[in-house]
Prior knowledge:
Largest sheet: none
Number of helices: 4
Radius of gyration: 17 Å
Amino acid sequence: MLDLHRTFDKQKKALFFLLALCVLGWFFTPYPTIFSGIGIGAIFGTYNFWILVRRMDKFDRSYRDGKRSVSLGSGLRFASAVAAVAIPISLPNYFNVVSSVIGLMIPYIFLFIEALYSLMKTRK
Length: 124
């Protein structure tokens, strides 16, 4: 479980870097809605990953104690993803829907890259 926390810490750092790039893109390019959509999607995606980390901790504790865990928070993460898309749909002048969906997937892409990096590191 410590690896998941380490990965989440790395993702938070990458999120701040990505948000800085989105702010620069929002100010200095003619596509502010795309960069704001990526930013809001990445924020909700990181929130979803935080929920997953928190629920995995709870699951590990309940498994260690011999209790049953109810869920891993799929409903809450799904509702958060719906909110990440509902905001751009309701405010199309400020956010792009497609870029917010792409931004929602960015933390999972970071997770995949981190897993590949970890795999390559252990093979050496």
